[in-house]
C-alpha cells in the first residue's frame, strides 16, 4: 500500500500514461510510415517509392489541384474570418458569449455528417456538384479554424496601442494597417496553417461534394492504402509530412517575429 501511495504521489509518474499514448498513437504510426516509405514489397531499402511520385503525372496533377484548392479555401476563410474575429473581439459588438457559441455549435457536429448534409442540400436544390460546392463545403468546415486563432490574438491585444496611434492623429484605416494587423499576424499564421494543410490532405469532403470528380492529395493516399499499395501510400504520406514540417518551421519563425512588427510607425 505504501509503494502504491509513493507511485501515485510522485508527480513524474502521472506523465507515464501520456507518454505511452504518444508512443503508441503518435510516434509509432510515424515510424511505420517512414519505414514503409523506404522499403519495397520484399522488405529491402529503396528510394523508388519516393521517386515514383515525381514521375507519376496523376499524383502530381492531383497535388497541384490540392494546392490550388487549399490556397483558394484559405484566402476565402481569411477574408471572411478576420472581420468576424475582429467583431467577436470587439466589446462594442459582442457584449455576450452568445455570438461565439453560434460559431462553436457547428463544430459539435461530426464533420462527416456536416459534409453529407451539405451534399444533400445541394442535391435538393438541384445544384451541380463541382468545384464551387467543394469550396463552399471547405469554407463551411474550416472557417472556425481561421476565426478562433485570430480572435484569441485580437482579444488579448493591448488596446493602448491603438489608442496611442489615435491620439497621435492616425486615422482608423492607418491604425488597422500599422497596429492591429501586424499585431494579429500570429493568429493569422496559425489560422492559415490550420486551414491550408488539412485542405490539402482531406479526401471525404471532395468525394461527397464533387461526386469524386475532383481528387485531392488525401484521396490519392487513401486509394493506394485501400488497394494494399502500402509502400507507395506511405511514401505519399511521408511527402505530406515533409510539407507540413517545412510549413510549420516557416510559420513558427514568422510567429516569433510578428509581434516585433507591430509598432506605431
Summarize the structure.
The chain contains 13 helices and no strands. By secondary structure, it is an all-alpha fold.
Textual characterization of the structure:
The chain has 265 residues and is mainly alpha-helical. It has 2 domains: 1-39; 52-261, Orthogonal Bundle (MetI-like fold). Helices cover 75% and strands 0% of the residues. It contains 13 helices and no strands. Helix 4 crosses helix 7 and helix 4 packs antiparallel against helix 10. The chain is globular, with a radius of gyration of 23 Å.
Radius of gyration from CA coordinates: 23 Å
Query: Based on helices, strands and strand pairing, what is the structural class?
Result: mainly alpha
Annotated CATH topology of the largest domain: MetI-like fold
Task: Return the domain count.
Answer: 2
CATH class of the largest domain: Mainly Alpha
The CATH superfamily label of the largest domain reads: MetI-like
Helix content: over 70%
- Report the β-strand fraction as a percent range: under 5%
Q: Mean pLDDT, as a whole number?
A: 85
Total DSSP E strands:
0
Shape: globular
> How is the biggest beta sheet arranged?
none
H and E order = HHHHHHHHHHHHH
Amino- and carboxy-terminal Cα gap: 66 Å
- The low-pLDDT segments are 256-265
Number of distinct helices: 13
Q: Judging by the overall fold, what is the CATH architecture of the largest domain?
A: Orthogonal Bundle
